[in-house]
Known about the structure:
Oligomer: single chain
CATH topology of the largest domain: D-Maltodextrin-Binding Protein, domain 2
Largest sheet: 7 strands, mixed
Structural class: alpha/beta
Amino acid sequence: MKLTLDALNVLDAIDQGGSFAAAAENLYRVPSAISYTMQKLEQDLGAPVFDRSGHRAVLTPAGKTLLKEGRRLLLAAHELENQVKRIATGWESELRIAMDTLIPAHNLLSLVAEFYNEHTSASTDDPAAQSVIQNVIQNKGTQLRLQQEVLGGTWDALVSNRTDLVIGATGDAPAGAGYSHFSLSECAMVFVVPPNHPLAMAEEPIGSTDILKYRAVAIADSSRYLPPRSSGLLTGQEVLTVPDMVSKLEAHIQGLGIGYLPLYWAQAAIDARQLLVKSVEATPNRAIQKIAWRSDNQGKALKWFVEKLRQPAVQQRLLRCH
Length: 322
C-alpha cells in the first residue's frame, strides 16, 4: 500500500489552509516536512499531485481526485478509531464540536475546562471517588477539536461527518432521520448602520428599495455539500463577505456596510453609539439556534456535553458577549 493516512491528512491540511506553510502551522510541523511528504507521495504514486508551474502550487486533476476520495478514507479511519475506543471504554478518542459563528467561540472554553477538570477534588479514600477518578482518567483520553461553521455549514458538518456535535445550528435539520436536537435560544437580530451612514437619518421603517442602494456585510456559508444559504441579503445588493462574526461586527463599526447582527453581539457597540439600530419594513429577522448530534452516537464525552448544554446557566454563558 503506497498511500498512507498521514500523507492524506497532510494533503487535506494543505487544501484547508491554502498553502504548504499554513498546513505546516496547523499540523505543528516544519514546512520542509510537509514538502517532503508530498514529494514522497507523488514519487510513490508515480503521478503529480500538484502543478508547480505557476506562482503557487495547485492540485492537478489527479490530485483533486486523490483529495476527494482521500477525505472519505480519513473520515472512515477516524470513525473506526472512535468506534474501537468507544467499544473499549465508552469514551471517544476525539470529540469534534462545531460552533456556528453566531456563538462567541471563547464562551465555550469554560465548559471545556470543566470537562478536563471535573471531579479532580474527589477523595481517593472514597471507593465511589475511586470510580469517578478512573472515569476522569479515561475522560482525558478524549481529544477535543473545536471548529467554526457558518449558516448551513453546521448541518453540513454533521451530515458529512466532519463533526460530532453542533452548537448554534439554525434552520431545519437535513431531510431524513438520524439527528437529535433541542433548542438553545431564539437569536434576536437587529438591523444596524454606523452613525455617519446615509440611512442613519432615514425615516423608519426603512424600505428594501433604500436598503438595496448600500453595501451589506455578510458571512460566507461554510457548507461543502449542502446548498449554501444566505441571510438578510437582498437580490442584487452589493456585498462585502467576511469570514466570521468578529470581522462582521468590526466591518459594520468601520462603516464598510450595513445589515443584521445578533443583538448580543451588537449591544456593546450600540451602547457606545458606534452603531445605530434602525427598524425596517421586512419581517424581523430571528433565528432559532439548536444543539444537534447524530442519534446513533452514544459516546460518553458527547453525552457529557449534551447534558451540560441543556442547563440554562450554560446556555446563558454561551450567548454572552463582552
